[in-house]
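Suppose you are handed a protein chain with no further information: no name, no annotation, nothing but its sequence. What can you learn? This example shows the usual starting point.
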Amino acid sequence: MRTDVHDLGHHGDAEVRDDGSALVDLAVNVRADTPPAWLREVIAGSLDGLAAYPDGRRARAAVAARHGLDAERVVLTAGAAEAFVLLARALAVRRPVVVHPQFTEPEAALWEAGHRVGRVLLREADGFRLDPAAVPEDADLVVIGNPTNPTSVLHPAAEVARLARPGRTVVVDEAFMDAVPGERESLAGRTDVPGLVVLRSLTKTWGLAGLRIGYVLAAPEAVAALERAQPLWPVSSPALAAAEACVTPRALAEAAEAADRVAADRAHLVAGLSEVPGLRVMGPAEGSFVLVRLPHAALVRHRLRDLGFAVRRGDTFPGLGEEWLRLAVRDRVTTDAFVVALRKALEDG
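A reasonable first move is to predict its three-dimensional structure. Written in structure tokens, the prediction is:
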């Protein structure tokens, strides 16, 4: 039974549902103006085959080839969220540990599967950077995000790999890795790290949150265990078509260009925020979002809504409190308007 006060089920989309649908969205980390037209056409073209049951073999082979792996090391999932549920249900673990602050769904899935979950809380004083020695030696499942949501910290791959131990599964959530130029520090495709499980999502860069598509890269025996926990035909034909399309050379080149734009737009956002009195930007940020600390953040968030902007509250992440907000990176025009609104929201206090 959970005893903490954090709402692990709260996500950024809650900020833009219902009465928030007209707000400028800085709460959800899906790239703006997506999916692109060519991807919409691919998905639309797949609808002619809806009478047939989904066949994931081609998409699975394409994902495997993209990472230089055999297909037996790939599981296609209905988004990364399904992968967390599968891991919680399929793996026989005694002492799972989640490294926080990070995306809360892995811990929520473990609790729902009946596990008692330990936490390693990274410290603000250390820049929320991973210290492998802080993870208990007897932990047989360790979950960490890279780059981490919501801190935007990119942990060195060598440090993450140091978490590996005989008999331990190390789950690395790389849902935002394709927003990092060159995907540096990625462990996807590595087969030399024992117990490594890497999760990837296609929903963030390509704007496919409503389609639900992601995948897991792991050793064949782990893949087999996850597949046994899946229902029949877990990924729809349109999602399979999207997966295959998003790992083509053309798509990867477009994603790389998008990552460079995100980096430039993030630098512009950080520069604007750095001039706001009383606000601290955690850095260096490497994801498609930044984490900020400011007084009266809950009140400021509500005032920003009145000014037309939605941002993500930070207090639902273990290791953070009410003074934190997460901001998605947007284009420069949107950022400039947001910084003006943020200053007004703070001045009104």
